[in-house]
């Protein structure tokens, strides 16, 4: 009865009858066979034009069945886009939902993972309700939203597993009953063997080994990465051989490493049962290298693997197909008869075909009413313009019209009828505007969670001062803010390089590790991608992480994780998952190529879906942290590197006052010119304004405080209505963040119409600053640069009053 025990896993198999055992095995085979049929049919749907592209999990079915047996309620998956069989076996997805996602159906409930926004095999479970409140994550099998970038799932996997360690070891978190049961949850990761060549894989493997967390990584090894064989991918052509040094022993902590053939159903069940038990009970990371897998349909629908695999390899893959091998084992073991297994296969084909048809018909049926309405509307317009009937007849004859074709026809008819007013056109326009709102909801909504804990919903509390308020270093304001909040909210954790023992390189966390413990304020190794991943995973499991990157320049090392995963999480799941990570870093003015970067345009282009906070001093930073600690959306906060030892007044309510995001502030009022900037540069502008005042020039200085969002109350445009002149001062490269700010003011706020002269930008040079104070002076905007640029703008407006300086 050994097979019965290892195949049923969590079921008590001691008294299991043969018929029960047979039923379990047949059901496993049924799921695997149905998944294969879904792959075959899915590929056909792409090649016939019904879907745009497809990647499928064929060849990986049997190991995923074994993995699913060990996956329990409360566990998490951070996986690879070939895990459809696992999703079917765990109930995370149905076959019909799989096809709905393939067709990109945005209808509510059709694709519950992404609302039609992600390609097939990108799964997610519902962590968050419509109002932003959390579900009970201990009662469901959890799947973090998949992403396509190879290896990208590894960073977040570290955080999902690390959360279990914190829940088990920090008893102050016991009250969070909906997120963990004593840290017993395992984080399951999957990855293709070729993707183990990615740096993020090695970084995550090392991080998990250091942290000793319940992370179980499965490597699906089919010996290729698209057309590139393992000999070009991996040293020794074997990733588990490469990683042998991570194997734990009697003297050193590390991994348990397992290796198993992907077509051996009994062995797979045994390995997964043993590995996950170790991982769950001992909090030891495990690596399961599943070898000798195949890819019967090739990498994707974009090509054929016959182009790059030899005849011998193709013949071997046919012989070692995991479903065929499981079928052979079932027959040889007398578990089923040929007739029984043929019946299972026949019914599976029918079931999958019916699910596909139902998904396709529902997709079309959701569009057909719109198609008919547009045809009718255009026919109404054709009474006055007969030539429009060609558009309506073309749309009416399109049998499987998709929404793009419907709205292309609608918009063309509206354009061509612009000179022909009629009641029919008015009705058409009214319908079109309603549909525009619906399409925004379908395709563009939920960039942010926008729930009851949105930053916009956080009460604005002003900083309070009295006669006893002390002048302190800026770093002390931050330290006091963190101290108050860590005492208030047990969910807060912070980690990063040099953050714990020494309290960060600028002393914002000085003394706090000793007070709150190493589990809450933690040093990490130099691994920016997995520092971000730790933050994402912890936040997805209900904690409030501060993930620190020592300098803004170093954030570039983790930009892929932030951009591909965190920034798009709410959007790509249509709001069913969130990760309120606060990324803390420091930058702007200092000295040298590597510690004075302000690559703000890079962040603006990559991090839509996150908030980007650029406080000018540490008091403003503390107020933003206070807002973010109470909110549930991710953000980057960039502290001014040269502001930690500048004196600021310590607020009485340092842990409670809040700075709203998107609220610009007028720092100095003026009448002649509006100057907009952020961060450290504002002090330079304020100094320049003093000399300009002696020259008869009155400068209005505006600090947007956050760039994402930017000046929601249109403070900049209000200022321009008074001054009619605009200068944007920016430490980024020419055309960097300054171009974004100009677009916001001139286009979105309609500031263009308020100008009486050309708007100007004053930026850093196109290169990074060289080392030394002179390097800073000649590379980034200086007081002299600001004075002379503003003066020249005034000269252009009134040369007689302001004669040329040079």
Strand content: 5-15%
Helix content: 40-55%
Mean of pLDDT: 96
Described by strand count, sense and barrel closure, the largest sheet is: 7 strands, mixed
Low-confidence stretches are: none
As a whole number of angstroms, the C-alpha radius of gyration is 30 Å
Instruction: Name the structural class.
Output: alpha/beta
CATH superfamily label of the largest domain: Thiamin diphosphate (ThDP)-binding fold, Pyr/PP domains
Q: Would you state the CATH class of the largest domain?
A: Alpha Beta
Discrete helix count: 27
| Count of the separate structural domains | 4
User: Which topology of the largest domain does CATH recognise?
Assistant: Rossmann fold
- Quickly give the CATH architecture of the largest domain: 3-Layer(aba) Sandwich
Strand order of the largest sheet: 11-10-12-13-15-14-20
How many distinct beta strands? 22
The N- to C-terminal Cα distance equals: 95 Å
Silhouette: globular
Cofactor: thiamine diphosphate
InterPro entries: DH_E1, THDP-binding, Transketo_C/PFOR_II, Transketolase-like_Pyr-bd, Transketolase_C
Function: E1 component of the 2-oxoglutarate dehydrogenase (OGDH) complex which catalyzes the decarboxylation of 2-oxoglutarate, the first step in the conversion of 2-oxoglutarate to succinyl-CoA and CO(2).
Pfam families: E1_dh (PF00676), Transket_pyr (PF02779), Transketolase_C (PF02780)
